[in-house]
């Protein structure tokens, strides 16, 4: 009993020098572990007369609680000290100026596409996509361009094999959609996406560029619907005062076909170097869907008519922002790209 009474004082003395968790564990083992002082004391119990044993056992257990409390308090003190040391080490001077980091932004072409998509979604159009690796059937044949048709040269192609190519325009998505609709439902879609042509790269041509196709097929669709729709596009992208004009043109998949010009925003139609003194700038090709295309896609041309258009996204961006070289869009020069950081993709809100 006497030696028990000293154990608490001994432990408190020993703990004064304990600065690490490992040392604390050692001490714990020495006092309350299986081979520690308390365990040894319990061993001596059998040497005591029977009547003294219960009191001795109680004393050992009470002492164990006391020792464990001391060890626990010391552990907490060690943890707190470690935390304080870490806080001191990691101290942050909140008065120092921050490190600026560059925030990314949407590419100008994505901004333009989103703006045009928003416009068309507002007019009830759906957005459709199609594959960039396309079959000759959808890229040409079902668009009234059979093999050996001279108009195929209008779009020099990258062929992958005899029947497969990188699509030269977004028009195959028209065909795919009409076929999927089974010649019954009205169609009202736009299809944005990448297209590829064997054009030599220069200031206004790229071998890969983006188009947005539009297609409406219904029972009362007219050229004036087409004109009204394209006027909306022109005014959204180039300003509320813009006018458009339709010039006769030729595409095998539309009849009649037109090329669409927008009045030059730079000179208000008076004539300048940007519009080559004409007051007008060409923005896209369009027309009424050719009967053969409707028929091939399962639509009855005596019941359904449609209009379609296809615009080059880079060319629209170039006109909207007076960008003089199409290659700027693809060379990832930060000085170019960051100019469009906060832009919403159009001139007029
Ligand atoms: C077509 O691609 C037709 N599929 C458009 C169409 C759709 C007409 C539906 C009628 C009905 P075109 O080859 O003209 O047409 O190309 C359309 C637009 O893509 C052009 O007005 C031009 O803005 C752009 N474009 C054409 N070639 C290039 C090129 N190499 N680089 C950048 N833009 C180009």
Q: Roughly how many Å is the radius of gyration?
A: 41 Å
The unique ligands bound to this protein are: adenosine-5'-[phenylalaninyl-phosphate]
Number of helices, counting only DSSP H or I runs of 4 residues or more: 11
Strand proportion, as a percent range, falls in 15-25%
CATH superfamily of the largest domain: Bira Bifunctional Protein, Domain 2
What is CATH's topology name of the largest domain?
BirA Bifunctional Protein, domain 2
Tell me the count of domains: 2
Main beta-sheet annotation: 7 strands, mixed
Q: CATH first level of the largest domain: which class?
A: Alpha Beta
What is the total tally of β strands?
A: 10
Structural class: alpha+beta
How is this structure best summarized?
By secondary structure, the chain is α+β, with helices and mostly antiparallel strands.
Question: How does this model look, in words?
Answer:
- The protein is α+β, with helices and mostly antiparallel strands.
- A 7-stranded mixed sheet has the order 1-5-6-10-9-8-7. Strands 2-4-3 form a 3-stranded antiparallel sheet.
- It has helices at residues 2-15, 21-32, 37-44, 53-89, 108-122, 136-139, 172-181, 223-238, 291-296, 313-321, 334-337; strands at 126-127, 133-135, 159-161, 164-166, 187-196, 208-218, 244-251, 254-263, 280-289, 305-312.
- The protein has 2 domains: 2-89; 108-340, Bira Bifunctional Protein, Domain 2 (BirA Bifunctional Protein, domain 2), CATH 3.30.930.
- It contains 11 helices and 10 strands.
- A hairpin with a 2-residue loop joins strand 3 (159-161) and strand 4.
- Mean pLDDT is 91; it is low at 344-349.
- The chain starts with a helix and ends in a 12-residue tail after the last helix.
């Amino acid at each position: 009993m006497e030696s028990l009474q000293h154990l608490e004082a001994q432990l408190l003395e020993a703990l004064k020098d304990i600065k690490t968790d490992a040392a604390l564990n050692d001490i714990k083992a020495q006092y309350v572990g299986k081979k520690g002082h308390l365990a040894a004391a319990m061993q001596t119990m059998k040497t005591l007369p029977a009547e003294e044993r219960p009191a001795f056992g109680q004393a050992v257990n009470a002492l164990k609680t006391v020792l464990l409390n001391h060890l626990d308090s010391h552990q907490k003190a060690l943890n707190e000290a470690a935390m304080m040391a870490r806080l001191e080490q990691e101290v942050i001077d909140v008065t120092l100026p921050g490190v600026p980091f560059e925030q990314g932004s949407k590419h100008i072409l994505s901004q333009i596409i989103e703006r045009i998509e928003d416009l068309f979604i507002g007019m009830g159009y759906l957005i459709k996509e199609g594959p960039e690796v396309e079959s000759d059937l959808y890229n040409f044949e079902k668009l009234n361009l059979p093999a050996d048709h001279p108009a195929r040269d209008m779009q020099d192609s990258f062929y992958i094999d005899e029947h497969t190519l990188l699509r030269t325009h977004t028009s195959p998505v028209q065909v795919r959609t009409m076929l999927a609709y089974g010649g019954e439902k009205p169609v009202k879609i736009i299809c944005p996406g990448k297209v590829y042509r064997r054009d030599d790269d220069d200031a206004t041509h790229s071998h890969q560029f983006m188009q947005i196709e539009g297609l409406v097929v219904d029972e009362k669709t007219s050229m004036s619907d087409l004109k009204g729709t394209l006027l909306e596009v022109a005014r959204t992208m180039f300003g509320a005062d813009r006018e458009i004009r339709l010039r006769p043109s030729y595409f095998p998949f539309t009849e009649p076909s037109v090329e669409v010009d927008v009045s030059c925003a730079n000179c208000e139609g008076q004539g300048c170097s940007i519009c080559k003194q004409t007051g007008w700038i060409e923005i896209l090709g369009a027309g009424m869907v050719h009967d053969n295309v409707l028929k091939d896609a399962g639509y009855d041309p005596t019941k359904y008519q449609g209009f379609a258009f296809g615009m080059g996204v880079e060319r629209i961006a170039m006109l909207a922002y007076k960008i003089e070289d199409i290659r700027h869009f693809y060379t990832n020069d930060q000085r170019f790209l960051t100019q469009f950081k906060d832009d919403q993709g159009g001139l007029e809100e």
